[in-house]
Design brief:
The complex is a heterodimer of chains A (114) and B (113). By secondary structure, chain A is mainly β. Chain A has no helices and 11 strands. Chain A has a single domain, classed as Sandwich (Immunoglobulin-like). Chain B is 0% helix and 50% strand. Classes of the chains: A mainly beta (114), B mainly beta (113).
């Protein structure tokens, strides 16, 4: 079966540009997560959705970061006015249930801001 | 916020040697998950530990959760080249599917043939 997919896989943006990163979770998965992974570091939590509801956005680093999941399936992470420090791999993960389940990660989108 | 510390950051071993990575927290952990990330890949779930003192085995991998639920370890017996990657522990306050995971910095396992 299909896993979590993300697009684009690679994105190069000029500083100040807006970008949109897409995540297609595993069909039927209730929970969806976004993480940011800097080179050589562990993933850092950004935000969490349960169906279409954004239950936790405490990890979003600034108000330039915005995430949505309007129909409870596909999610988009938008970064406005990108800065060089936004360069990282953005990972999306989904999970089938709300408690005590593993998270299934997508391949990530590598964002490079020049 | 909650932090999990992992040591060592890097571990070089000869193929066939054993490997252990440790995860420590200053506060009691609700549960601990372990993930493996191959170079250029994404994290892949290995296991979840919930109970105090829990020990689980997966072939050559042994996972332990401390009695006080403040530490955990992953031990690999007789490493193989396929074990190369970064091993992360991760903690979830509520449960892996219900909130974001707090990852350690990971242990990079490098195997010399």
């Amino acid at each position: 079966g299909a896993g979590v997919s993300q697009s684009p896989r690679y994105k190069v943006a000029k500083r100040g540009q807006d970008v949109a990163l897409r995540c297609d979770p595993i069909s039927g998965h209730v929970s969806l997560f976004w993480y940011q992974q800097a080179l050589g570091q562990g993933p850092e939590f950004l935000t969490y959705f349960q169906n279409e509801a954004q239950l936790d956005k405490s990890g979003l680093p600034s108000d330039r970061f915005f995430a949505e999941r309007p129909e409870g399936s596909v999610s988009t992470l938008k970064i406005q006015r990108t800065q060089q420090e936004d360069s990282a791999v953005y990972l999306c993960a989904s999970s089938p249930m709300t408690h005590y389940n593993e998270q299934f990660f997508g391949p990530g989108t590598r964002l490079t801001v020049l | 916020g909650q932090q999990v510390m992992q040591i060592p950051q890097y571990q070089h071993v000869q193929e066939g040697e054993d490997f252990t990575t440790y995860c420590n927290s200053s506060t009691t952990l609700s549960n601990i998950q372990w993930y493996k990330q191959r170079p250029g890949g994404h994290p892949v779930f290995l296991i979840q530990l919930v109970k105090s003192g829990e020990v689980k085995k997966q072939k050559r991998l042994t996972f332990q959760f401390g009695e006080a639920k403040k530490n955990s370890s992953l031990h690999i017996t007789a490493t193989q080249t396929t074990d190369v990657g970064t091993y992360f522990c991760a903690e979830s306050t509520v449960g892996g599917g219900a909130d974001g995971l707090t990852f350690g910095k990971g242990t990079h396992l490098i195997i010399q043939p």
